[in-house]
Design goal:
The chain has 249 residues and is mainly alpha-helical. The protein contains 12 helices and no strands.
Length: 249
């Protein structure tokens, strides 16, 4: 439990607890929450290797042994961060994923139902930043995570419980619309391309803001424009796939 403190102190909202400290359940829950949110900020800024447990403890306003008490080690802290972000993502996306999976499971689902289900997934993703509170460092945390720069355990949690389901339902919708086998590689590539429309506005936020001349503060009107553009492009591309299928092209 060593390292040089480089970040300041932050206090955020609570997340679920693993342990309760001797002075009571609620205090233990709030302490764990502070550690998780401080860790997201530190891991986002310095990466898993660069952020020490002392950095995280200092940012959370706790002593270093508290991290070992709640999470055992730094990898345990990291996994708890992934779990917390996953809970926010599934709160936003879970219902839409389940609805899309039901549509895919229906052999009689129409093209319109399939397209609508895919568009609702895009709608929920595009609306994520409007409806989920800002968390210091989470953009960089997830960018590093998706680039494979975090522990395998954290990636496995996020992939198995979210990313794989989202990818599978998206690919199944696109291949159904195209009238090809579910394992058709070319159409699965197209599904990934369509599903990641608008991703730059989240993972490359600073660069996009700079190139667009936008201030860094949240802007509901800007978010609305992004969402409308993503949905319009998604529907257009999916309808084009249907037209190609029907024309035999």
């Amino acid at each position: 439990m060593t390292g040089t403190s480089r970040v300041g102190r932050a206090t955020r909202t609570p997340v679920r607890t693993r342990h309760a400290v001797d002075t009571g359940y609620q205090r233990g829950e709030e302490t764990r929450a502070r550690i998780v949110l401080a860790a997201i900020k530190c891991f986002g800024e310095f990466g898993f290797a660069g952020a020490s447990t002392r950095d995280i403890a200092h940012e959370a306003g706790v002593n270093a042994p508290a991290l070992q008490y709640y999470f055992d080690n730094k990898e345990g802290v990291y996994t708890a961060c992934v779990e917390y972000i996953l809970s926010l993502v599934m709160g936003q996306m879970g219902e839409a994923i389940e609805a899309a999976e039901r549509v895919v499971a229906d052999p009689h689902a129409t093209d319109k139902q399939l397209i609508d289900a895919f568009c609702e997934l895009q709608n929920r993703k595009a609306g994520f930043m409007e409806e989920v509170p800002e968390i210091d460092g989470w953009h960089m945390f997830m960018a590093r995570e998706q680039a494979g720069l975090g522990p395998e355990a954290g990636f496995k949690v996020f992939y198995e419980r979210f990313s794989s389901r989202l990818a599978a339902v998206g690919a199944n919708i696109v291949t159904r619309l195209a009238g090809v086998a579910p394992d058709d590689e070319a159409m699965r590539v197209r599904a990934v391309c369509i599903s990641t429309l608008g991703m730059a506005f989240r993972v490359m936020r600073r660069s996009v803001d700079r190139s667009m001349g936008w201030a860094s503060e949240p802007d509901p009107e800007r978010n609305r424009m992004v969402r409308e553009a993503v949905l319009e492009q998604t529907r257009h591309l999916l309808e084009r796939i249907v037209k190609q299928r029907k024309s035999g092209g």
